[in-house]
Amino acid sequence: MDLIIRNARLADRPREQPLDIGVTGGKIVAIEPGLAAARETYDAGGRLVCGGLIETHIHLDKSRIIDRCPPETGREISPMRQVAALKPSLTEEDVRTRAERTLVECILNGTTRMRTQVEVDPAIGMRGFDGVQSLIADYKWAIDIEICVFPQDGLTNFPGTDELLVQGLKRGARVIGGAPRYDTDHAGQIRRIFELAREYDVDIDIHLDVGNTPEAMDIHLVCELTEQYRRGGRVVVGHMAKLSTMPPGQLAVLARRLADIGIAVTVLPATDLT
Length: 274
What we know:
Elements: E1 3-10, E2 19-24, E3 27-32, E4 40-43, E5 48-49, E6 53-58, H1 79-86, H2 92-108, E7 111-119, H3 127-138, E8 144-150, H4 161-170, E9 175-176, H5 186-200, E10 203-208, H6 219-228, E11 235-239, H7 248-261, E12 263-267
Parallel strand pairs: 1-4, 1-5, 6-7, 7-8, 8-9, 9-10, 10-11, 11-12
Antiparallel strand pairs: 1-2, 2-3
Helix pairs in contact: 2-3, 5-6
């Protein structure tokens, strides 16, 4: 065996004595006490051993900028506007330095897979993308990082953004996202995102339906396009705060439709409003 992790506890066997875990070729091949010696051993010291954590939604390119755009007060806040004002001053090196600090903390806390949203538009260009992408090879020994390239500040109303999205997809982004509520043409942005996802055969992870009422929800168009483009199982909708404002009966109907189509939902706290 290549590696033996000794004295490990497993979640499904909490009352048993610590066990040894044998690894060959990157795969677990044995779990039992007193395994024979291997080329490398590690003593877990009775700690819990479990599968790696998955970070499904994070913005590495915007992490650790609280000192540059402090929290707003009141109920009607828009962190997006503060970040937009910073973009011209952000460099690739700055993005990488901040993102790396956050990434290391995620790894130290057990994260082994990550999908990070990365903004591209004429204000930031590809600097944010380059800063985050430069970390993938350096940390591939510890974590699989998946970039979701997306237009935070609009697509149809921000000329030049479409070309940068395409550039990100051609350079390795495995997911495309969107934020239609910041676009003057919600439906136009959503349709373009689905077109690009089909053209480059990538998944979709879109920020959707934040607001105080269940009116004018974009999720219905996303459902239609998911069926039309046969993207079931490859679409995630995030934020979705409007779900909490829907009558229970209507919410149940929508939830069933999402499940039937194969759309996953990540409902985020109000602290992530971008």
